[in-house]
Amino acid sequence: GLDWKFRQPIRFGDTIRLDITVTRTRANAAMGGGIVTFEVRMRNQRAEIVQKGTWDVLVQSAAAAHEAEA
């Protein structure tokens, strides 16, 4: 899933960066991997948080990737 908040505008000429932290992992063997939850904060050149939110991403496990290659 995606939960995203727009706190301030981003303007032309702004320099932005992302601070990303893994906050949770949930293995799911039936899906061949699991869900990884990321907390994301987008900052401008003044270190102000302009956007923030969480991303839930389905990630394939290393074991499942090796099986797919075989």
Give a concise summary.
The protein contains one helix and four strands; from the N terminus they run ββββα. It has one helix at residues 62-69; strands spanning 2-6, 17-28, 33-43, 49-60.
Query: Radius of gyration, rounded?
Result: 16 Å
Span of the ends, CA to CA:
31 Å
Helix proportion range: 10-25%
How many β-strand runs? 4
Q: Which secondary structure elements does this structure contain, and how are they paired or packed?
A:
Layout: E1 2-6, E2 17-28, E3 33-43, E4 49-60, H1 62-69
Antiparallel strand pairs: 1-4, 2-3, 3-4
Describe this structure in words.
- The chain has 70 residues and is mainly beta.
- The protein is built from 1 helix and 4 strands.
- Strands 1-4-3-2 form a 4-stranded antiparallel sheet.
- Strand 3 (33-43) and strand 4 (49-60) form a beta hairpin.
- The longest helix has 8 residues, at 62-69.
- It is elongated.
- The model has no long low-confidence stretch (mean pLDDT 92).
